[in-house]
Amino acid sequence: MSASDRGTTRHQIPGASTNLPRWPADPPPIDERGASFLVITVGTDTQAAETAERWLARIAELRRPCERLSAARAEDIVPAVAHAIDTAFVGLRVLVTGPERDVLMIRSAVLAAGAVSAEVCCHAAPPGGHEPRAMNIWCVACRRQNAGVTAHLTTCRHCGAALAVHAHFSPRYAARLGAVSAPPNMP
Fold it and tell me: Would the pLDDT of 9 be above 60?
């Protein structure tokens, strides 16, 4: 098998046959049945900021309580998100926007904190220009995540295993599956 057959010359993880969400071009409307709202914006993307502003304007029209959280990266805001969910009352609706990798990480944290899928509305901003689609990869060898991977073949940053990135996506871990393509160097 040549290097190009293995996908090493491609720089973007394909999304053709995957269980990753398909994001609509336009952000979804808010669930107006919500008693209160938590709007989470991740990243510096102007489209994500515009989406959040649109959601916030509609929430203001409804005169419902709303909390807003924002951060440059999902990792920076997960503890605050977990706290907001932990202290929330019944009827909270969570709205998340930003780059796909961050949106999926926040969604996973929201669900892990006790929200149900029907209470969470997400919209991922598309990558800009020729920017590759960065994803988290779950290494099956060491059971740890590798953040921001864009290639089909990668090396685990934790255990050194050569990983083949599969299309399977785990909503629980907000990561794609990285199966061992060559065992890590063992002493």
Answer: no
Residue 76 DSSP symbol? G
Contact 81, 110 (CB under 8 A): yes
Q: Is the four-CA dihedral 159, 165, 166, 167 of positive or negative sign?
A: positive
> Is residue 23 within 8 Å of 127, Cβ to Cβ?
no
Task: Return the sign of the alpha-carbon dihedral for residues 150, 132, 97, 16.
Answer: negative
Q: What is the pTM of this model?
A: 0.73
Enter the CATH code of domain 36-125: 3.40.50.80
Cα Rg of the chain (Å, integer): 18
**pLDDT of res. 12:** 45
Asked if 51 contacts 97 with a C-beta cutoff of 8 angstroms, the reply is yes
Q: Spell out the domain ranges in the chain.
A: 36-125, 135-182
Tokens representing 130?
A: 């020729």
Across 80-104, average pLDDT: 93
CA atoms within 13 A on the CB side of 158: 12
Tell me the HSE value of 55 on the side-chain side, using a 13 A CA sphere.
31
pLDDT of residue 80: 95
Rounded CA gap, 119 and 36, in Å?
11
